[in-house]
Design a protein that fits this description.
four-stranded mixed beta sheet, three-stranded antiparallel beta sheet, DUF3768, 2 domains, 193 residues, alpha+beta, 3 helices, Putative DUF3768 family protein
Length: 193
Amino acid sequence: MRLKLFRAATLRKENNMGLQQNIEIENLVGAYPMCGKCGQTQIVRDAWAYWSLLTRSWTLKTVFDGFSCDNCGGEVTPIWKVDKTFRLKRIVRLNDALRRGQDKHNTVVITAGLQQFGEAYLASVCQAVAGFDQFCEANDPHQEHDFGAITIDGTKLFWKIDYFNLEMNAHSLDKANEDITHRVLTIMLASEY
């Protein structure tokens, strides 16, 4: 398992749209705290809970700022790590869902050149994109299932997935988080790439 260590509380991303954005490391999908003293993951926080008559259980009310480690017993400042393998599997699942028409926030773009082929051809193209499973190092170097090349009736086509924030004015801060990411699947003639 590959893990990336984050000591800072915030990542700053500058995207090619000229915007700077911040995301708290703990809000990344796959992030988890480790004890800064002993390296274990038994990090706990104090909180208040109240008894709910409706659910007949304790309900979280407030979480306090301090962190403690159950393993070494003291107050600690956690070191945040990100499980890259978990994140990658999540991105692949979301990208595959988009290609099959099951994603939460998405847009599918069919380029002008491809639209000229007519509805029946477009239906076969969409079916081929949804069923595409020929991922390899050459066409999927990041292993995210975000690009593919297909040939239908002798015409070479590409499809790709881009990740934007929900307002569509910047790239997503966390493409593994479907609640803050709008995926755009673009299907095009290879000559339009």
